Amino acid sequence: MKYKFGILYAAVASLMVACASMGSPDGGPYDEDAPIFVSSTPVAYATNVSDKKFVLEFDENIKLNNPFEKVIVSPPQVEMPEIKYSGKRVTVELFDSLKPNTTYSIDFNDAVVDNNEGNPLENFAFVFSTGESVDTLAVSGTVLNAQDLEPIKGMMVGVHRADDDSAFYKRPFERVSRTDSRGRFTVKGLAPGRYRVYALKDANQNYLFDQKSEKVAFLDAVIEPFATPAVRPDTIWRDSVTIDTIKMVAYTRFQPDDLILRAFDEEFYSQYLMKSQRKEHNSFTLFFADSNEELPSIEGLNFDAKDAFVVEPSERKDTIHYWIKDTVIYYKDTLELSVTYKVLDSLGVMVPRTDTLSLSPRKLRAKVVADEQKAFADAERLFQRNAKRRSDYDENNPPVYVPPTKETRIKSLNSQTMDVNVLYRICFDEPLLMIDTARIHVEKVVDDSTYVSMPFIFRASDNAHRQYVVYAEWRPEEKYRVSIDSAAFKGLYGGVSKSYEEKMTFRSLDSYAVLRLNIPGAGNNSVVELLKSDGSPVASQKTANNRCTFYFIAPGNYYLRLLKDLNGNGKWDTGECGKGLQPEQVYYYPHVLELRALFEYDQDDWDINAPLDRQKPLEITKQKPDKERQKRNRNANRKFK
């Protein structure tokens, strides 16, 4: 009887445990311990190894997380090794011939994780040598994207002996590593000597820089790896929140361990016409793969292209929109034309290239006419139906329907409450043929009923097609009205604008913050950008004598980025590896700025010489550390019962 009752009790208890394990908030702490490497065949750091198959044992069941992405063998292998795992075991088999007297490292990075919670075994590598000794030196650092200091995950980092400047372009790396989610790398198994360090987004997996399209980085200085004895604190925790003891542990520190590589894409000119598009009869667009120094030439094959277009190029002239002036031309259902533009030949010389195009709109002219006729008939029918309802309707002399005049629409780009540093803008859906500024009126509103005329300037925008700016003496806290009489504007296709009115108020100066920056080392003409929480710029200023000031800042949280604009062109310029030219330097202020209205802030603690990998705030860093690393903090947020 006792035996049967015991079985029942055990069954109920096991069921309760099973149910509890599915919960989580009220269960025990997560397993946070990484797997422990126990043994291997051959043993780690073995010498005179000739076998190419290795078996590694761990203290618990494991799995490999993205092994083809994270595991890397050094020296690099031409043929991909075979990596398998089962239970507590990992098997690695190499297929390349082993080089004599060479130290090999199979760097797992953090690919080895426990089977249940996915806790990673950090920086784990299996090392052996085919010679009498094992090379144990290592160098470490971080790879950042040069333009925005984003850590780059999965980028290859390797070394060559310093006595051969061209090895990077001719031979695979001697030793190689790969960056983790923080951009960190460690190149292991180095022998004493002098090395050059490179990073490469190796598109064709041949471990050398042979494609201009590959992202690249290089260290200016030659390095000599070395090792020194050191100590570091080791914390023993009593539980998830209480420290038991902190003791100092001796270890060997391999240096340099703070290398910073700034990766960039070289200027790579590859010009071709990507696509052409003619959505409507009256226009078409050409899309190029790269910028054009000059506009392409257009020759009509079934029409005369001379002075046939209003041309709207983008800033880089890589997207060009053509408005067709003549209705005879744009009524054609098919436009045959040739486009001639400059490309780079195999000798690096700009030569002309001509593409022939046949452009047709989405709807053929017959369909457009049919749609217009139907719209006219529907409008006329509605007009007559409404007319018959009027008391003065004369059936013998019905009113004649007159279609409305074609309209050139005015679109406002403003808000009712304007910032004092924002321009008043309007835009149009087609190019303008005529502007009558006498029909434009700018007035100050007094007591909501009195309007006082103001002088103004109406001018086309410098940086946007079909966009116009009204310049006037706008003042904070004042109300204004912009009114435009009908027919003030005439569009390219004969449409005229209707009357238009817009009222707005400019914000009070009390609505803004002022930010003054003192940045030692910024010098003159560095560009400082004020960034929103998504990392996009909202304003920029140039420095003068290490200083700059931002006015009229709306309250909120902001970040700062600085560009050392060495050539003074106002933009970031990339580097060129073959010429030893590094990209222009970029820096970030490491903290968020919480700016409030009515406050003036003086910020003078920006040290642009601080380590680059610690500058960019995590809040605006897009490449976050892998989620597995965050599991260590889970217990701090859990409630135990």
Give a description of the structure:
The protein has 641 residues and is mainly beta. Mean pLDDT is 89; it is low at 1-27 and 631-641. Among the domains are: 31-134, Immunoglobulin-like; 274-362, Immunoglobulin-like, CATH 2.60.40; 410-510, Sandwich (Immunoglobulin-like); 512-610, Immunoglobulins (Immunoglobulin-like). It is elongated and about 110 Å long. Helix content is 9%, strand content 38%. The strands form 13 sheets. Strands 27-36-34-30-31 form a five-stranded mixed β-sheet, with no helix packed on it.
Task: Write out key terms for the chains shown.
641 residues, mainly beta, Immunoglobulin-like, five-stranded mixed sheet, five-stranded antiparallel sheet, 5 helices, 9% helix, 38% strand, disordered N terminus
Which structural class should the secondary elements be placed in? mainly beta
What is the CATH class designation of the domain at 31-134? Mainly Beta
Cα separation of the termini: 34 Å
Residue runs with pLDDT of under 50 for 5 or more positions: 1-27, 631-641
Strand content: 35-45%
The radius of gyration computed from the alpha-carbon positions, rounded to a whole number of angstroms, is 35 Å
Widest sheet: strand ordering: 27-36-34-30-31
Largest sheet report: 5 strands, mixed
- CATH structural fold name of the domain at 31-134: Immunoglobulin-like
Helix content: under 10%
Coarse shape: elongated
What's the rounded overall pLDDT mean?
A: 89
| CATH architecture descriptor name of the domain at 31-134 | Sandwich
Strands, total number: 44
Please give the count of helices: 5
